[in-house]
């Protein structure tokens, strides 16, 4: 009887842990992203920057969506970017980005660095390439229910990323000062046209 009681308590504990795990996964929605956006304001420069938590399932790489709002100067308005810190064993020299249509656009190279060498042997360093991709608001509105894939190209390697829909909706909701919506990916009919496959970012240049 005692052993049975122990087994029941053990089974209950396992079930509770599983429920908590599922609950944690369930919180990864647009409301969660909306709540965990990092906000930075510079009143003197007239800028406000929103950054999402890092995108999931990116391996050694780190990617986030970033929105920058400017109220002063020549670039008044909001600008949205996908920022990526790509990690390689050697420099890949990322310089292009493509979306579902396959069309390649230039991307902005912010910097390329070696880190955590711990030795004078450069071959043992971690290589990071910091790049950013401009995204149009119109494109993100079209993709907020489905997300999208993006591929960063370099001479020696490439990076494939998936931007989840709830990250897009969470960011847009905060920018529009509204509550995030629970969106369902639309189903195309014969009378509907395809969802735009690629954004039309402004021309980016290397820095």
Annotation keywords:
alpha+beta; disordered C terminus; 10 strands; 207 residues; six-stranded antiparallel sheet; 34% strand; four-stranded antiparallel sheet
Characterise this structure.
- There is one protein chain.
- By secondary structure, this protein is of the alpha+beta class.
- The protein has one domain.
- The protein is 24% helix and 34% strand.
- The chain contains four helices and ten strands.
- The strands form two sheets. The chain has a six-stranded antiparallel sheet. The protein has a four-stranded antiparallel sheet with strand order 6-5-9-10.
- The longest helix is centred in the first third of the chain and has 25 residues, at 2-26.
- The protein is globular.
- The chain starts with a helix and ends in a 32-residue tail after the last helix.
């Amino acid at each position: 009887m005692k052993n049975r009681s122990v087994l029941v308590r053990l089974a209950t504990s396992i079930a509770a842990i599983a429920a908590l795990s599922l609950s944690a996964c369930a919180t990864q929605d647009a409301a969660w992203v909306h709540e965990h956006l990092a906000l930075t304001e510079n009143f003197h420069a007239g800028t406000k920057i929103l950054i999402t938590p890092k995108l999931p399932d990116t391996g050694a790489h780190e990617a986030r969506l970033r929105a920058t709002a400017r109220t002063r100067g020549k670039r008044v308005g909001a600008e949205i970017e996908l920022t990526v810190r790509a990690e390689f064993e050697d420099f890949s020299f990322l310089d292009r980005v493509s979306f579902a249509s396959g069309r390649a656009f230039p991307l902005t190279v912010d910097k390329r660095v070696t880190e955590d060498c711990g030795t004078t042997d450069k071959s043992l360093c971690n290589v990071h390439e910091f790049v950013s991709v401009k995204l149009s608001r119109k494109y993100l509105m079209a993709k907020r229910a489905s997300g999208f894939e993006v591929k960063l190209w370099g001479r020696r390697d490439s990076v494939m990323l998936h931007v989840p829909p709830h990250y897009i909706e969470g960011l847009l909701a905060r920018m529009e000062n509204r509550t995030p919506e629970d969106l369902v990916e639309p189903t195309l009919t014969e009378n509907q046209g395809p969802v735009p496959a690629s954004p039309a970012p402004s021309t980016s240049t290397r820095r």
